[in-house]
Amino acid sequence: MIHQASEIPEIPESFLARWQNTTDVMAGIFDVPAGLIMRVLPGEIEVLVSSRGEENPYEAEDKAKLDTGLYCETVMSTRRMLHVPYALEDPEWAQNPDVAMNMVSYLGVPLFWPDQQVFGAICVLDNKRHVYQDKYVELLREIKKSIERDFVVITQQRQLTASNRELQQALVRLTALQNELLRSEKLAALGAVVAGISHELNTPIGNSLLAASTLQDHAVDFLTNMEHGLTRCRMQQFVRTVEQGAAILMRGLERAAKLLNTFKQVVEDQPVRDRSHFDLGEIMRVVVAQLSHAIQGSGHSVHCAIEPGIVMDSYPQQLALVATQLVSNALQHAFRPGAVGTVRISAQSDGRGKVTLTVRDDGVGIPESDLGRVFDPFFSTQLGQGGSGLGLLIVYKLVTATLHGSVEVSSGSGQGTCFTVVLPLSAPKVLNNSECPLPQPTAVLCDRVRPS
Hints:
By secondary structure, the protein is α+β, with helices and mostly antiparallel strands. 46% of the residues lie in helices and 18% in strands. The longest helix has 95 residues, at 134-228.
């Protein structure tokens, strides 16, 4: 019984072509009309490769039923070499179907897959008596080894193809999972944004509605009192109530308008027309001077260690806003209450047309779980508590879109935080609508990323 592989793999054309050359050469060396590579199939045996020659009666893809007594069938079932010098004188082989094709001499050895399952056989057949010497037998065994080495390569290629297919399927599943996670994260982020913005706007709008309602009630009371006569004291009280209500209305509406303007600033492209040559150190010292009141109120210190001579051709107003946002963020959120900290601004030119600006603090640091999200829209650890989560997004947008640079953040719990901004000394020109008005400096919008 032939124990063949459960799966019949396809043989690549490149191997079939090489085996064709092998059988052609083999038939010539052995001086026989037929050199064959046979393959066993379910219930059949097939001529996989046949040497080319006029006297060869076998052709590739010829098939025969098993259990018919073929030479090669015996080789495969016994898993051993078979040598039949002259079948017509051998009662065991005289009625062999190959004899009917005038193939009266045979020499063949079995071929095995790497798992030792039968592939088939390699053989030579002759139409006359042929006794094969040991050197020919040894040559046939070497050809067998060569083909079986090809089987190893074919098996490895199949395994690699299967692995690649599995990897591709895994990649498809992973991509689908990533998309699902991204969708879930976006929905979660959207929920947080809606909650935060609603709270931010509801507070000033709610206060304004309360003030307006109170004024309306006082106005009704005032009209009622007018019918019965008003005293001087009552009129003064009404005027004070109106003044207080109007002040509350103004503060609430101004706060709401400021928030809406901030949101608009993030989503709209702002015109940029203030390009000029400037000294980076001077711009940073101006930023520190403008923040002097906030610095004194925080109890912390800010040191600018930028030597003169780093000249840039860029957009100083936007660069100043970037530095202002970063320094203010550090002053407000890098340090624990009651602690005294330091923020340091430094810069270094690389001599190849770029400058690295760093804003570093010695505070408590940003948790690793938050580092990858600090530039995300509306991400804030204090969303709904005065933090809109847009300050560092504005920094990122200005640095990448207007200043044509990059910004990164590094930190560790208890190790402080460092924002690194890499900029070209000469920024590419930013094109805008020439009719747009020159943007005015915006108020500092701290991103409210409190480290811990």
